[in-house]
Design goal:
globular, about 300 residues, 15 helices, about 60% helix
C-alpha cells in the first residue's frame, strides 16, 4: 500500500511514510546524495573501482518510499522462498542509492553503534528504498555480504548492523515491518546455507575450488551470530545441522559444523539429554567420513562433543 503524505506529529505506523514522519532523517539524507567519499574515513579501506560504483549509485532515480505491512506468524516452511541464486558482488552499477548506506554499514566497526544506526536510518529513509519491493533484495545483500566477507574485506561481522537495521525498522516502520524483514533475512540465510553445503560445495571441491567452501564457512558463522543475537530461531539451526549430516564430510564441513555448534550458545543446547545424545550419534557416524587426520580435526571434534554434553 502506498504511503500517504502527512505533516502531523503522529507517531510513525506501518502505514505511514518514514520520510514524512521523520524530518530529521530526511534532512540528513539529502546530504547523502551529495556524499563526498573523502569525508568518510571508512572509504580508505575500499578499492577505487568500488568507490566509483558507489558514486554512480547516487545518480539513480529516487522513488517514494512504499511499505508492505503484511506480517504473518513466522512459519519457516509455510511460504517457501524462490530458489537461491549465485552469490553476488558487493555492488553493481544498477544498484539503487540505498545500497550506498548498506555498504557503509557493513564496513563499520561492529561496536560503532552511532554510525551503524545512522547508516540504517539513511538506508531505510532513502526515497529509493521500498520495503514491499526491496525486502528480499536487502536480505540477499546481507546474505551475500556475510558469505563473502573474507574476500571483500570490511567489518569482521555484519550481525550488529543487521540487528541495527531491524531495530531501526521497528522505530521507523513499525514492529510488523521489522518482523517481516527479520523472517525474510533468516529464511534467505538458512536456504542459502543448505544450498551451498548440499550442492555447491561438493561440485566446487571436485574442481579444486575452495572459494565456495570458504563462503559456506562464513555463512555458518553468520547463522550462529544471528542465533546468538536472538534473531534466528533454533529450528533453523537444527535444519542447518541436519543438512550437514546429509553431505559427505570433509574438513571444510567439519569447520562449519564446529562454528555453528560452538557459536550458537547455551540457549540452543538447553534441550533434553536424549536429544543431545541423538545429535552426537549422528555426528559420530558422520565425522568418520573426514579422512584427514590432524590436530585441528581432533580439536574440533573434541570441542563439538564437549559443547553438546556440557549441559
Amino acid at each position: 500500500m502506498s504511503s500517504t503524505a502527512s505533516t502531523s506529529s503522529q507517531p510513525v505506523t506501518p502505514h505511514s511514510s518514514p520520510r514524512q514522519q521523520v524530518p530529521v532523517a530526511v534532512a540528513v539524507e539529502d546530504n547523502l546524495y551529495n556524499w563526498n567519499p573523502a569525508l568518510e574515513p571508512f572509504v580508505y579501506h575500499l578499492p577505487l573501482d568500488l568507490l566509483s560504483s558507489l558514486n554512480n549509485l547516487v545518480e539513480s532515480d529516487k522513488t517514494p518510499t512504499r511499505l508492505n505491512s503484511c506480517a504473518l506468524e513466522f512459519q519457516p516452511t509455510a511460504a517457501p522462498l524462490p530458489p537461491p541464486r549465485p552469490l553476488k558482488p558487493l555492488s553493481a552499477p544498477n544498484d539503487p542509492p540505498w545500497t550506498l548506506s548498506f555498504v557503509q554499514g557493513t564496513f563499520r566497526h561492529p561496536t560503532d553503534r552511532t554510525h551503524l544506526a545512522r547508516d540504517a536510518c539513511f538506508m531505510l529513509s532513502s526515497p529509493s528504498f521500498s520495503l514491499s519491493r526491496d525486502i528480499r533484495a536487502l536480505a540477499d545483500k546481507f546474505c551475500d555480504r556475510a558469505a563473502l566477507l573474507k574476500y571483500q574485506g570490511g567489518s569482521k561481522t555484519i550481525t550488529p548492523f543487521a540487528a541495527e537495521v531491524i531495530d531501526t525498522m521497528h522505530r521507523l516502520l513499525g514492529v510488523e515491518a521489522a518482523e517481516e524483514f527479520r523472517r525474510c533475512l533468516v529464511d534467505v540465510v538458512a536456504l542459502t546455507f543448505t544450498n551451498v553445503w548440499e550442492i555447491e560445495v561438493p561440485k566446487a571441491m571436485e574442481m579444486g575450488d575452495t572459494m565456495v567452501a570458504i563462503a559456506g564457512v562464513s555463512l555458518a558463522a553468520f547463522m550462529a551470530q544471528l542465533h546468538h543475537a536472538n534473531l534466528l530461531e533454533g529450528a533453523l539451526v537444527t535444519q542447518a545441522l541436519a543438512s550437514m549430516f546429509r553431505t559427505s564430510a570433509s574438513m571444510e564441513h567439519l569447520q562449519a559444523m564446529h562454528i555453528i555448534v560452538t557459536g550458537v550458545g547455551a540457549r540452543y543446547w538447553s534441550m533434553p539429554r536424549a536429544t543431545r545424545e541423538e545429535f552426537l550419534g549422528f555426528f559420530d557416524r558422520w565425522v568418520v567420513g573426514v579422512k584427514e587426520e590432524s590436530t585441528v580435526k581432533n580439536r574440533w571434534v573434541e570441542e563439538i562433543k564437549a559443547r553438546v554434553v556440557s549441559f
